[in-house]
C-alpha cells in the first residue's frame, strides 16, 4: 500500500546524514579480524577512569528522571570556566544546541552564513528550519572571514565559525577573529563552534570566553565528545548571554541530557591530568604523521585538532577502500568537499605507524600488508 501522508516540503531539500555501514558489518563483510576506526574523530584514548568509577555509582538511580536543568554540572562548569551559571546551557551534544539556536532565532526565509566546507549540520538544520544557508568558500582550508562579512544581508540572523574547522583542522588567527566579531552587527548571532578547543596548542588561537562580556550576540559551543572521550553519551555545552540561554530553555526538551551523561561530564572535569595526557599523546601522533607524510610527498592542511585532512593525489574513495582492506577505516574526502583527500583521526602511536605502513604499501602498488 502506497504511503499517502506527506512530509514537510522542505524535507525534499534534505538528505539523511550518511552514517554508512557499522564497523561490525564492515568487519564481517570483509572477513577482517578487526578494524581500526580512524573515520569518526573520536578520542581513541577513551575517557577518564574517574568517569567509569562514577557511572557505576549512578546505576541504582536509573529509574529517576535526570535533572532537566543540569544544576550540578552547570555549577561545576561555571567554576571551571570562571563564568556565571546563567551564561551556560547544557545540551545533548553541541549538535542539539545548534538545532535549538536555529529553532529559537531563525525564521523561515532568514539567512545563516557559514563556510562552504565545514560541519554539515549547520547547513542541514538551517534548511530544515526553512532558512537559507549562505556558503562562503574556504581559503586554503581556512574560513574567509572577510568574505563572510560581505555575505551579510538584512536577512542574516546567524554566522557559524567552526574553529578549529571540521574537516580541515585549521584555525583562524586571533587578530582576524577579533576584528571579525567586532564588525558583525549586534543583532546577528556569531556562533563559534569550538568542539576541538582543548587540542589547540597555538598562541594564535583566540581565547573567546572573555569576549562574552563585551558581545551579547556571541555564542561559544564546546563538547565532552572529543578530548574528554564521552561521544557515546552525547553531552556538550554553550556559553552565551543569559537572554539567549533562556530562549533555548523555551525550545529544548525538558529532560534533554540524560543522567549518566551529566554524571560523566562532572567526573571528566575532575580529571584534568587525563585531558592533558590525551592532548600530549595527540601532539606526539600529529608530529609523527606530519613528518612521515611530508617525507612521502603528501600535503595536508595544518591541523590543530585530533584529525588530519590529507591530500592523496588520487580519489579519496580509492585510498579509503585500499586502507579498509588492511583493516583501517578512514573518511573519504569525497563526502567532505575534498574528493582527492582522506580525513584521518590521529590515533595511538601503534595505529599511526600501521596507518603509514599501509599507505606506503598502497603508494608502492603492493596494496596489502604481508
TrEMBL record:
The keyword Amino-acid biosynthesis applies. Its cofactor is pyridoxal 5'-phosphate. Its EC number is 2.6.1.9. HAMAP family: HisC_aminotrans_2. GO terms for molecular function: histidinol-phosphate transaminase activity. This is Histidinol-phosphate aminotransferase. Residues 35-355 form the Aminotransferase class I/classII large domain. It catalyses: L-histidinol phosphate + 2-oxoglutarate = 3-(imidazol-4-yl)-2-oxopropyl phosphate + L-glutamate. The lineage of its organism: Bacteria, Bacillati, Bacillota, Bacilli, Bacillales. Keywords: Amino-acid biosynthesis, Aminotransferase, Histidine biosynthesis, Pyridoxal phosphate, Transferase. The keyword Amino-acid biosynthesis applies. Homodimer. Pathway: Amino-acid biosynthesis; L-histidine biosynthesis; L-histidine from 5-phospho-alpha-D-ribose 1-diphosphate: step 7/9. The gene is hisC. Signal peptide: none annotated. Belongs to the class-II pyridoxal-phosphate-dependent aminotransferase family. Histidinol-phosphate aminotransferase subfamily. Transmembrane segments: none annotated. CDD domains: AAT_like. The modification N6-(pyridoxal phosphate)lysine is found at residue 226. Pfam families: Aminotran_1_2 (PF00155).
Amino acid at each position: 500500500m502506497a504511503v499517502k501522508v506527506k512530509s514537510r516540503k522542505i524535507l525534499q531539500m534534505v538528505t539523511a546524514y550518511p552514517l554508512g555501514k557499522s564497523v561490525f558489518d564492515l568487519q564481517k563483510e570483509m572477513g577482517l579480524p578487526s578494524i581500526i576506526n580512524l573515520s569518526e574523530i573520536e578520542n581513541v584514548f577513551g575517557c577518564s577512569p574517574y568517569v567509569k568509577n562514577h557511572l557505576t555509582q549512578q546505576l541504582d538511580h536509573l529509574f529517576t528522571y535526570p535533572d532537566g536543568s543540569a544544576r550540578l554540572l552547570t555549577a561545576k562548569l561555571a567554576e571551571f570556566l570562571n563564568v556565571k551559571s546563567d551564561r551556560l546551557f547544557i545540551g545533548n551534544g553541541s549538535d542539539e544546541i545548534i538545532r535549538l539556536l536555529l529553532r529559537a532565532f531563525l525564521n523561515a526565509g532568514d539567512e545563516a552564513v557559514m563556510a562552504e566546507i565545514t560541519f554539515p549540520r549547520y547547513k542541514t538544520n538551517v534548511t530544515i528550519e526553512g532558512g537559507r544557508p549562505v556558503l562562503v568558500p574556504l581559503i586554503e582550508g581556512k574560513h574567509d572571514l572577510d568574505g563572510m562579512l560581505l555575505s551579510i544581508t538584512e536577512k542574516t540572523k546567524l554566522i557559524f565559525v567552526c574553529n578549529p574547522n571540521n574537516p580541515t583542522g585549521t584555525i583562524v588567527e586571533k587578530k582576524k577573529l577579533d576584528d571579525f566579531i567586532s564588525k558583525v552587527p549586534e543583532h546577528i548571532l556569531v556562533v563559534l563552534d569550538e568542539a576541538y578547543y582543548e587540542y589547540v596548542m597555538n598562541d594564535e588561537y583566540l581565547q573567546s570566553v572573555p569576549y562574552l562580556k563585551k558581545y551579547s550576540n556571541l555564542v561559544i559551543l564546546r563538547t565532552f565528545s572529543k578530548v574528554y572521550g564521552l561521544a557515546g553519551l552525547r553531552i556538550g555545552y554553550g556559553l552565551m548571554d543569559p537572554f539567549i540561554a533562556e530562549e533555548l530553555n523555551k525550545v529544548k526538551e525538558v529532560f534533554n541530557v540524560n543522567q549518566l551523561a551529566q554524571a560523566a561530564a562532572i567526573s571528566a572535569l575532575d580529571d584534568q591530568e587525563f585531558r592533558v595526557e590525551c592532548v600530549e599523546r595527540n601532539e606526539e601522533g600529529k608530529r609523527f604523521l606530519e613528518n612521515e607524510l611530508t617525507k612521502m610527498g603528501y600535503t595536508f592542511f595544518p591541523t590543530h585538532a585530533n584529525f588530519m585532512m590529507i591530500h592523496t593525489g588520487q580519489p579519496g574513495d580509492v585510498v579509503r577502500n585500499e586502507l579498509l582492506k588492511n583493516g583501517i577505516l578512514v573518511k573519504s574526502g569525497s563526502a567532505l568537499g575534498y574528493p582527492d583527500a582522506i580525513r584521518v583521526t590521529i590515533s595511538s602511536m601503534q595505529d599511526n605507524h600501521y596507518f603509514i605502513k599501509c599507505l606506503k604499501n598502497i603508494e608502492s602498488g603492493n596494496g596489502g600488508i604481508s
